[in-house]
Amino acid sequence: MKQPIFLRPVFQERIWGGTKLRDLYGYDIPSEQTGECWAISAHPNGQSVVRSGKFEGMTLGQLWDEHRELFGHYDSDRFPLLTKILDANDDLSVQVHPDDEYARTYENGELGKTECWYVIDCEEGAEIILGHNARTKEELVEMIEKGQWDKLLRRVKVKPGDFFYVPSGTIHALCSGLLILETQQSSDTTYRVYDYDRRDKNGNLRELHLDKAIDVTTVPHVQTQVEPTVVKTAGATITTFVESEYFTVYKWDVHEHLELEQDQPFMLVSVIDGEGTIITEEGEWKIRKGDHLILPYQLGTFQVKGTAQMIVSHP
């Protein structure tokens, strides 16, 4: 099939969510506390649905199970990636994710969760928490037990266009005032380390998962340096942010015209700004800010015309 597959996102309400997904992208969100747009997802906790065309109405999980030819020879028992847009209207909990082996053993065969963040937009002075200052597990436990969060957690100032790679085992959190595109393994396993003593809507303190969190945290913290590579053509700029064992992530900044060969098993594309047209030998498809699509296997050579910014990934 030589045409893009457009998807309808799923939305998740979160205690820290807001309304930016509606205000900036025009999405029909379920409430004023909508934190997550699961834009391209085959995870059982929230599946995208094909928006139009031959497979309209199918979930991405169904498509993966029943039409594996669209995804090349990628060998996995499940769709491997998940693309989200996160509206951090308030601070997220400080958390950590397990790796594949730990999740397989302790989370019913779930994948681990390595992720990365592209900062679409943020308020002046916005921050993330990325890493910690404990030198040993004993010190980590002691600082957690004493609530020495200012001493333990590393804070990093961010600005629009920044990119961060967050391997499993990294203590991290988005802080308030951030709009992020996240590319991650298809996992929904999170261990909360600290949640600012917040209570849920029933007045209960939100659950922490300290034993598992301490188990999986990398000590001492290892900072992953992101060194993007940039290729400019007459009509576009392609930035490669990361090439890891789980995913490769790019930004396509098209200001006129881009022509590429789809030479991966499949590619996930999220249009974060602008509009344009994707052209293949089977036809033309309009794209605009807020669209999410998959470029399937054997799409062949394609063009993007217009002015648009896209975050693109593949396994």
Question: How would you concisely characterize the structure shown here?
Answer:
InterPro entries: Carb_Metab_Reg_Kinase/Isom (IPR051804), Man6P_Isoase-1 (IPR001250), Man6P_isomerase_Firm_short (IPR014628), MPI_cupin_dom (IPR049071), PMI_typeI_cat (IPR046457), RmlC-like_jellyroll (IPR014710), RmlC_Cupin_sf (IPR011051). With 315 residues, the protein is mostly beta strands. The protein has helices at residues 20-23, 60-66, 100-106, 137-145, 149-152, 210-216; strands at 5-8, 10-18, 34-40, 42-43, 46-47, 49-50, 81-88, 94-96, 115-122, 127-132, 153-157, 163-166, 172-174, 178-185, 191-194, 229-232, 236-243, 248-254, 257-262, 267-280, 283-288, 292-295, 300-314.
Spell out the key features of this protein.
Man6P_isomerase_Firm_short; RmlC-like_jellyroll; Jelly Rolls; isomerase; Mannose-6-phosphate isomerase; mainly beta; 315 residues; 2 domains; 23 strands; 12% helix; 6 helices; metal-binding
